[in-house]
Amino acid sequence: MSDVAIGVDVGGTKALALMVARDGRVLGEMKSQTPHDEGFGAGEATTKVLVEQVNELCERQGLVPAQVPVGLGLPGMMRRDGHLAFAPNLQTASGADLGAQLSEALRNSSVFSENDANCAALAEHEWGAGRGIGDFVMVTLGTGIGGGVIADGQLVRGRSGFAGEIGHMVVQARGAACPCGGHGCWERYASGGGLHRMTREAALDGRLATLVDRSGGDPRHVRAEDVTAAAAEGLVEAVTLLREVGWWLALGLANLAAILDCGHFVIGGGLSSASELVLPAAREYLVDLVEGYDTRPTITVTTSMFGPRSGAMGATLVAFEGA
Amino acid sequence: MSDVAIGVDVGGTKALALMVARDGRVLGEMKSQTPHDEGFGAGEATTKVLVEQVNELCERQGLVPAQVPVGLGLPGMMRRDGHLAFAPNLQTASGADLGAQLSEALRNSSVFSENDANCAALAEHEWGAGRGIGDFVMVTLGTGIGGGVIADGQLVRGRSGFAGEIGHMVVQARGAACPCGGHGCWERYASGGGLHRMTREAALDGRLATLVDRSGGDPRHVRAEDVTAAAAEGLVEAVTLLREVGWWLALGLANLAAILDCGHFVIGGGLSSASELVLPAAREYLVDLVEGYDTRPTITVTTSMFGPRSGAMGATLVAFEGA
């Protein structure tokens, strides 16, 4: 078994590569822009960047790129056979088997792929905020909501490897339109994108009067970031909106608790700047929203230990496990 | 290992006991009224009936009640330690450890308990409509909606044994009030109780004009059974209402497919009289409601093989497994 592995979290905008030892120590790091060049075969431009990252990280440690196991954390529905079946934020790689392409380019037979949020769940379970916890859900709040479900100590992958698409759980039937084609998906209410949408709505219907004034009077100029900043200063209308996001977050967590009886949630992803207000509100609302809350042991909600590195950390576990 | 076991599905109105061989053959059956006598200790009246059933079934086969493993399928949140933590339909046994009571009364050390819908999932997985399928969800449509989740061939029990409370997944935030204290729970829309509620609403707001006429002009006299019967005859307003129940059913199934990537649903429980109309509608609506439907293998929805016997059949598996 190799004692180091490389994990790459391939996001829609950036690809973060880490070289990690079996005990979780980070030995090297490299961040690149994710290319969206068209005119290449599916995934080719992305693979070129991944090759550069693996070569660079190996060179720094004096290792041979063909001999270090590599794990890829990919943003979308990953089939168990390695193909990225559906990737709205990485469309130039949609349908491609990035792992196979990278394996061929590096002449490295140990390249493995997994959904990015599933990777994050694995990392938190092995080394982080879910360590020693058999039943928890990793929830990544970004533009949308990703998820990784750990049940009885095992990652739930599902029939095709698509499990954990928790952001597309409908919590408001016939609700807000979602880019997935559905309506009322959880991520339209409790993610960064949800905050953006709710900011717009609240500004237009008069619930953010102070922020509209500050933005020059045009409700369309109030941004989600303005709400977060104003809430940190204690502006009531902004605090109220972030607490509403917390309510929606709690609603989805309560659904997951009902279905899975998970006792713990690890929250990661880019909405963490707002999390100082959103998470306490979510914890508070959970008490009312979880069925039979009083008959259960306490349900805990914590932030991820590895933050934006969770996905890449977990991708190394996929590499260690596969190699 | 014993080659026969007894399983009892203890419902809110009836307790169905089966004696079953390891290969699934039913060797004996006994149905009793579930007692709701108060003035006894929690679960005592229920235990008395269970003792009678086990004794009777054993006597018929010439077996000793202390030596046949017994499984109980119980209607509510079952803790892993055997206590029935929360049982709205069997309140006189709420908080009791019926398994321990029965074990003591029979001097039988092999008595085991599990949630009833989890039992049904186990039965369908071992012998029925989920045989050989690694990822499926058992959905029991009765007054409410119960569930049992099989992931990668294993029953998901969750931290305390409460997993599968799928009927309390909220699909309509701030929606219809639910006896659990929540609002907008799936079971308020897609169960027998949901049909009842939606019948009342539709009758009151003029969408069941023919049935209101037939019932003597008072909208409050139209029953869910009238809708089911009229739909079977093709009455459009009734068919429309049952198709709406099918839409809500599909919505919840789509949520479960997103979270768990289960490829199959087994539908059981007492709403089966309506299932000839509800299930085809649900299958049709699933295509639009499941995220990335086209990128997944076909998702199938079938009725349970054992119908009202699923729970008791599965309870015998809990007994076989535990003994």
Describe the model.
2 copies of one chain form a homodimer. Chain A contains 10 helices and 12 strands. With 323 residues, chain A is of the alpha/beta class. The first copy, chain A, has 2 domains: 132 residues, Nucleotidyltransferase, domain 5, CATH 3.30.420; 173 residues, Nucleotidyltransferase, domain 5 (2-Layer Sandwich). In chain A, a hairpin with a 3-residue loop joins strand 1 and strand 2.
Topology of this protein?
The structure is a homodimer of 323-residue chains.
Chain A: E1 4-10, E2 14-21, E3 26-33, H1 44-61, E4 70-74, E5 77-78, E6 84-86, H2 98-106, E7 111-115, H3 116-127, E8 136-141, E9 145-151, E10 154-155, H4 187-190, H5 192-204, H6 209-214, H7 224-232, H8 236-260, E11 264-268, H9 275-289, E12 300-303, H10 310-322
List keywords for this structure.
Nucleotidyltransferase, domain 5; alpha/beta; homodimer; five-stranded mixed beta sheet; 323 residues
Level-1 CATH class name of the largest domain in chain A? Alpha Beta
Tell me which oligomeric state these chains represent: homodimer
Strand order of the largest sheet of chain A: 3-2-1-4-7
CATH topology title of the largest domain in chain A: Nucleotidyltransferase, domain 5
Please identify which CATH superfamily of the largest domain in chain A we are dealing with.
ATPase, nucleotide binding domain
Sheet having the most strands of chain A: 5 strands, mixed
Tell me, rounded to a whole number, the average pLDDT of chain A. Answer: 93
If helices are DSSP runs of H or I spanning 4 or more residues, what is the number of helices of chain A? 10
Low-confidence stretches of chain A: none
Q: How many structural domains can be distinguished in the coordinates of chain A?
A: 2
Largest interface, and how many residues on either side?
A: A-B, 51 and 51 residues
The total strand number of chain A stands at: 12
Strand content of chain A: 15-25%
Percent in helix of chain A: 25-40%
Q: Given the C-alpha coordinates, what overall shape of chain A results? A: globular
**Structure classification of chain A:** alpha/beta
**Radius of gyration of chain A over alpha carbons?**
20 Å
